[in-house]
Every structure is written in C-alpha cells, then in structure tokens.
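Handover notes (outgoing to incoming on-call)

Open items:
1. Transport permease protein: sequence verified, structure written out, both below. Nothing else pending on this one.
2. Nothing else urgent.
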Amino acid sequence: MTAPSLVRATRVIGARNVLRLRRSPDLIAVVAVQPVLFVLLFGFVLGGAIQVPAGDYQAFLVTGVLVQTVVFGSALAGIGMAEDLERGVVDRFRSLPVPRASIVIARVLSQQITGALGISVTAGCGLLLQWRPHGGLAGSLAAFGLLMLFGLAMSLVSVTIGCAVRSTEAAQVACYAWLFPVTFVSDAFVPTDRMAMPVRLIAEWNPMSAVTTTVRALLGDGAPAAGGWPQEHAPMLALGWCAVLIAAFLPWSVHVYQRRTAGRSRPTSAGRAKGGAGHGRCARR
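Transport permease protein structure tokens:
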C-alpha cells in the first residue's frame, strides 16, 4: 500500500458515500432536526431550573448542543459501515485493488459532512434565539475546527463498533447507547460543580467536557467559575483526547474491519469483473 493509492481510493470511495448521502433526504432531515429539538427542550422546558456560573443558560446550552450534535452524528459512521458490510457493498470494494484502510477512512471523512451540517443548524438555531458568539472570527473558526476534529475522532470509535457487530440493527443500538452517558455525564448541559463527587470526577475528565469547555472559551461564552485541573487545562486536554482517540481507533478500526472481512471468500476472476461493474454502479449512486 502506497500513500498515493490510499489517497486515490479514499477519494473515490468517499465520493460514493457523499453521493449516497445526497440521495438520503430523510437522514439529512434527522441531522437537521435533532439539535433544534435539544435546544428547544433544554432552553424552554428545563432551562429555567438550571443555574450556570455565567448566568446565561442559553449561551451555555447552545455550546453544549454544538458538541452533542457532532457526538451523536458520529454514530452514523458506524451504522453506515455496518450497513455496507451487511449489504455486501464491501465485497464489491474487495474485488478491486484498493487498500482496506481507505474504506474506513473514507467512511469517517464523508461523515464529517453531516457533522458540519449539524453544527450549522445548531448555530443558526442559537442565533434565532438571541445567542451570539463573542470570541470573534478567529475564535469561531477555531471552535469549528475543534468540533470537526472531535467529530472525526468519535466517528472512528463508531466505525470500530460498526465493524464489530453483526447487523445494522445491532449497530444502531451499539453506536448510540454509549453516547448517552458520555453526553449527559459532562458539562454539556449542566455545570459539573453541582454533581456528586464521584460523578463530578468522571464528568470533569470526560473528553466531551474538555471539548465543550474549550469551545465555550473560544466562542466567548464563559467557562465554569470553579474547577480542578481538567477545567483549567481544557484546551490541552481536548486536543490530547482527540489525538489519543485517533491514534488508538484508526488502526483498531482497520484491524476490526480486516477481521470482520477475513472470513469472506475472495471473488473469482468472473466475480471480480462483476464486482467491478457493481462498484461502478454503486459509485454512480
């Protein structure tokens, strides 16, 4: 495997994933509606009962939903990978001389389109509710970059899960189930200083808390008034968590994918020709 071949294969397979996304308006609708529901639910139903150090829960909430959007959106990468494995799309790819890592990387990178869409919808909803970022253009761009980086790291985790399970239905449960404690045992929606000590300790070291605190600081939405080492060094911790997740789950996801497909019989010469034609049709979709 050479770097140019990996890049070419990733580009072609990624284009196929993007074409499928363009023809899935229901998926795009879910990505767009979900953050709006969270902003409205927490902002208007529960917001009056939650106190934050800065005093403006609306700003506190919008930043949390921005991070929550990319985290929940990352599950779609694992579900999409499981669907391709179950439907035999991967067998078509295996009939072609493409690096196996390109299939995983293409899935993760193409998923960032829905992540960017979710961020845009959430920010737009916040602006309609009088939320304003105060960190300037540089801070907003840095926050967007961190959100996309974290979404990429979390997508690798989801792809690993999607390759490990045996059906799309199992992937839908497995890729979302663990995200709920990760999301709610953090400072995305409530400050950690009001949590019980064992839960607070977990929340403070939660990767999502580090990213959320950093994004709040970049957007000028403030940070918790009091906190320990994780809050004081949130930017370093956020980047560190992203680096660790990518370094750990990029090779692991490829390894799990290879194990999952190792038992599949390799296509014959006739099968390769048929698979290549199938791949062409799949890419045109």
